[in-house]
Write a structure and sequence with these properties.
Elements (H helix, E strand, L loop, with lengths): L2 H13 L8 H15 L14 H10 L16 H15 L4 H15 L7
Length: about 120
């Protein structure tokens, strides 16, 4: 494959930046729709493509997804949240466990010189 064949899907993903911010429900629906449109078949059947609102809140408490701007029903999610959630769900669809994803993120944070959760 050439770089040109990758440009169109990447450009499409970048265009989602213009649609931000989202509320929790819209973010969950958008990520689910993008994953569904990708036609990727998850290795792990438990890794549903559509993340629920509850799942996203759980990821925030685990430090996998950055906290939203604002609180409660006024909370908004940015393009960064969109990409974080896509990355997590794609890794799960590849068969990676949530524990392994957490360890990988912590290792990356240590290599960058700091941890997101203060440890």
């Amino acid at each position: 494959m050439t770089g040109a064949s990758h440009a169109e899907p990447l450009q499409t993903l970048r265009e989602y930046r213009n649609l931000a911010p989202w509320n929790l429900r819209d973010l969950a629906a958008l990520v689910g729709a993008v994953l569904d449109a990708s036609a990727i078949t998850p290795i792990n059947a438990a890794a549903r493509a559509q993340p629920s609102e509850r799942t996203i809140r759980f990821y925030v408490t685990k430090g996998l997804v950055s906290p939203p701007e604002g609180r409660g029903t006024a909370a908004t999610y940015s393009y960064r949240h969109f990409l974080q959630l896509l990355w997590i769900k794609l890794r799960q669809m590849e068969g990676t466990t949530l524990d392994a994803i957490i360890k990988e993120m912590r290792a990356r944070a240590r290599r960058r010189g700091g941890s997101r959760d203060g440890r």
